[in-house]
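Bug report

Summary: structure tokens for Pimeloyl-ACP methyl ester carboxylesterase differ between web form and batch submission.
Environment: batch mode, default settings.
Steps: 1) Submit the sequence below via batch. 2) Compare with the web form result.

Sequence submitted:
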Amino acid sequence: MDGVPVRWEETGPGTATAVVFIHGIPTSPGLWRDVLSHVKAARCLAFEMVGYGESVPAGRGRDISVARQADYLLGWLEAIGVERAVFVGHDLGGGVAQIAAVRRPESCAGLLLTNAIGYDSWPIPSVKALQGSAGLLERLPPAALRPLLASLILRGHDDLAAARRSYRVHRRQYAAHDGAAALARQVRALDVGDTLAVCGDLARLRVPARVVWGTADRFQKLHYGERLAADLEAPLLRIPGGRHFTPEDHPGIIAAATNDLVRAVERR
């Protein structure tokens, strides 16, 4: 779109309700790998944010902020002929979903947020530290980047086996594309103003919504999930002991909530 290559993964019948899954940092559409197979009777599209995953090269020299990702998302939906979709967002992807829904509410049929950024909840302290040392970060050799990524991913999981799989899936993207320089570009682009600009509009969204939250998340605290649920007038499903990467630790719960939301959308 306008010279920017956009990538996504797709499953399910092309004529069914479209559900768009949006990942965060430091992940890619692979975040949803165990969720997609359990979302029934829906066209599932796992959007890859520009500058992330296999699309790291597309982010070089471009705006890859959360607000800009919402523009990419909406332009992509228009380009592939999807007029309305259910948005499912995790981490940064939840911020993208909120901004897209506020900017173009007619494109959002429903909204599910799981351990998502919002309001002033981000960047988290460890990411702020990376922002402050981005010049050094971009020059890190691969051997030094690996433990940094491992620490970030492991702290966000309550299932150790899932954490190990997650690390293997997501580190490959950095190893293949620019390494630490890619992560440095990603953290430099993070600006809390992107979600603060739309948070006052969330309560005016009139779409079916669900909020699913790991209660032990050290990155996006539960009270932000409670605030999102209140603003969206949405039920809040708490995952006791769940940490940040809910789509990888608890894919069945996320899929069930998505299926429930799709049914609610189709009943309207």
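Above is the batch result. After comparison, the two runs are identical; trailing whitespace caused the diff. Strands lie at 8-11, 17-22, 42-47, 85-91, 108-116, 209-214, 236-239. Residues 8-122+191-267 form a domain with the Rossmann fold fold (CATH 3.40.50.1820).
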